[in-house]
Design goal:
alpha+beta; six-stranded mixed β-sheet; about 30% strand
């Protein structure tokens, strides 16, 4: 039996050309793609903590569209371009997930698609019931 997919779009012009969705819900799982710290006008904050906060705002909106919330997150993956940003990004993650405590990975990478991005974040949520 194949579960029905719900594709959640961000409206990014790259979704159809790259072939991805901001998030996908399959059954009780909501998987959010790598999320950069962009504002609707395409800009992003300079500060790594502010970038992480913006990523999580976008993630929260995608989760909500899939029927989930940050409280349902069971896994996060954070990609940073500078090890010096670990504390700032960790502080935001801890603020949002201190009580949830998902499995989490933080990796230092050589770069991200947009050079101004210091962080990109993925999330996976699991709902208690299929609705």
């Amino acid at each position: 039996m194949v579960s029905q997919r719900q594709h959640i779009s961000s409206g990014s012009p790259f979704e159809p050309t790259i072939g991805f969705s901001r998030a996908v819900r399959v059954g009780p799982r909501v998987l959010v793609s790598g999320t950069g710290p962009v504002w609707p006008d395409g800009s992003c904050p300079d500060d790594a903590g502010a970038q992480a906060r913006r990523c999580f705002e976008i993630i929260a909106a995608a989760l909500a569209e899939g029927g989930a919330s940050l409280a349902d997150v069971v896994r996060t993956r954070m990609f940073l371009t500078d090890a010096g940003d670990v504390d700032a990004v960790s502080a935001v993650h801890g603020e949002l997930f201190g009580a949830v405590r998902p499995a989490a990975t933080m990796v230092i990478v050589a770069g991200l698609v947009v050079p101004a991005w210091r962080v990109e974040i993925e999330a996976e949520a699991m709902l208690d019931q299929v609705s």
